[in-house]
Write a structure and sequence with these properties.
This protein is 79% helix and 1% strand. It has 17 helices and two strands. Strands 1-2 form a two-stranded antiparallel sheet.
Length: 509
């Protein structure tokens, strides 16, 4: 009888797994179908608007590739903006996707600019292109190479830099078209340096703010009084940082101001926001008892706002990665000349904006989960430090003239938070100072399990603790996978760009 029941349970479990797999396959099929509908809509839209122009078929193909690139930007790159908010449960996945889609599209359309650089970051010298046709082929190859690489990275669950992807594609296609001498190697060396600068700087800033919150608020006896003192300052710093961030990255294409003016506007935002934020924190903390979750709740609203603002700034900047080469193709065909900057037709901007939003809605949740919960566990406090780090690192890097990747910054900040947790957790285990553990809510579930076992069976508790210590708080598998993807992004994009250029040229000749 027991055997029959066990066999039945296994059979039912197998059936549930099969059903879950079938549902996931059906869901993926529906998403791919909707993505294809979007690309078909792009082709029909462009065909209608360019039907009488020369090489209109080529323009339609380029528009489809640009739409495909925009879909992949939405699927991969936007996760960095909302992932921490979702992982900390400040936002549900549905709410995060809706907010990000709206603000990404708004940023692209409102602040995407009227002119875009056609050759990303001056990677290649357009003067060495033999003719306009070769230039158009190279831009198409670069765009498709970057899109394919982003698609692959999303499929394996690795958040990578969209900018680095398109840089690799342009470099590979440019070398295939003109030779190795066309590449600006000093610019490439700066990009390579950013592989280290971006995540390290983002991680250090995030870890620094998290340490400040822990030692000034969470590890003191009267948490409520400490929160009333420090949280308004921290939120005001975030408001100031995001004001400067939006001035630097969000609206810089439609309103350019000097660095000094940006700094003074940031100072003004800090001063003007401090008093109302302090009053809001006092009201919100009136009935608090000092539990960690209560203190963390004070950071929820700033975290949600930061996710929206990060998305707006991302849309205004990274839409150029999707439409820059596309604008180059349109301008090259229309004028018959090689251009380094080109006006953005409205239909090109719409394809980029709608494509990013559609890619986020259809395929973004996978990377959002990776950034928000799979690398390390986040709560509103930790997620707040990640968002603040993303804004501050971009501001600092821009002031120093350093090329940085927003993807590398955000993911590096998540790792920085996780590694700080490991350091403090290890200190807590080695030296269980009363000032560091004020209640059981400071302990993770694993640590609470070890503490319970310690009262019953000390030897079993030691074995459980060794196992827990070995597991750590940052999943090393994700660290290795993501770092590997970052390192090979430019070379992979370059290889694909070169192969696709030769393919396109072979087809067209």
């Amino acid at each position: 009888m027991v055997v029959k029941k066990t066999a039945l349970d296994k059979d039912l479990k197998w059936q549930r797994r099969m059903q879950a797999g079938a549902d996931a396959t059906a869901s993926l099929g529906a998403k791919i179908g909707l993505a294809l509908v979007f690309l078909l809509a792009c082709s029909a839209f462009v065909a209608f608007h360019t039907g009488g122009l020369p090489q209109s078929g080529f323009l339609v193909a380029a528009a489809v590739i640009g739409g495909y690139m925009a879909l992949n930007i939405g699927a991969n790159d936007v996760a960095n903006n909302v992932g921490p908010a979702v992982g900390s449960k400040a936002l549900t996945m549905t709410a995060a996707v809706i907010i990000a889609a709206i603000f990404e599209a708004a940023g692209a359309i409102i602040a995407g600019g009227d002119v875009v650089n056609t050759i990303k970051d001056g990677i290649i010298d357009p003067g060495q292109m033999p003719d306009t046709q070769t230039f158009v082929w190279a831009m198409m190859a670069a765009l498709l190479a970057a899109a394919l690489w982003l698609n692959l990275a999303t499929w394996v669950g690795a958040p990578v830099s969209t900018t680095h992807s398109i840089v690799g594609g342009v470099m590979g296609a440019g070398m295939a078209a003109t030779g190795i001498a066309a590449v600006n190697w000093s610019t490439m060396s700066a990009i390579v340096a950013s592989w280290v600068i971006s995540p390290v700087l983002g991680g250090l800033i995030a870890a620094g703010f998290l340490a400040l919150i822990k030692f000034k608020i969470l590890f003191v006896e009267d948490r409520v009084a400490a929160a009333r003192k420090w949280v308004p300052l921290l939120v005001a710093v975030m408001i100031s940082a995001f004001t400067m961030y939006l001035m630097t990255k969000g609206v810089s294409k439609i309103w350019k101001v000097s660095g000094f003016v940006v700094f003074m506007i940031g100072v003004g935002a800090f001063v003007l926001s401090l008093i109302p934020v302090r009053k809001a924190v006092h009201r919100a903390s009136a009935r608090m008892t000092g539990r960690r979750k209560e203190i963390a709740s004070l950071f929820r609203i700033p975290l949600v706002v930061s996710a929206a603002l990060l998305s707006f700034a991302h849309g205004s900047n990274d839409v150029a990665n999707a439409i820059g080469p596309l604008a180059a193709i349109v301008s090259g065909i229309d004028s018959g000349q090689i251009v380094t900057s080109a006006p953005i037709p409205v239909w090109v901007l719409v394809i980029g904006a709608v494509g990013i939003a559609a890619g986020l809605i259809l395929f973004g949740p996978k990377l959002i989960k990776t950034v928000g919960s799979k690398i390390t566990k986040l709560d509103p406090i930790r997620a707040y430090t990640v968002a603040l780090s993303a804004a501050l690192t971009v501001i600092i890097a821009s002031g120093l003239g350093l090329p940085v990747s927003s993807t590398h910054i955000a993911v590096g900040a998540v790792f920085g938070v996780g590694f700080l947790r490991e350091v403090l957790s290890h200190r807590r285990r080695v030296d269980r100072a009363p000032m560091l553990v004020t209640s059981d809510e400071e302990l993770s579930e694993e640590e609470q399990h070890v503490e319970a076992l310690r009262q019953i069976d000390p030897e079993k508790a030691r074995r459980a603790e060794r196992k827990y210590v070995k597991r750590l708080l940052v999943r090393r598998r994700y660290a290795v996978n993501i770092a590997t993807a970052w390192i090979i992004t430019v070379p992979a994009g370059a290889f694909l760009g070169a192969v696709l250029f030769f393919t396109i040229r072979g087809i067209m000749i």
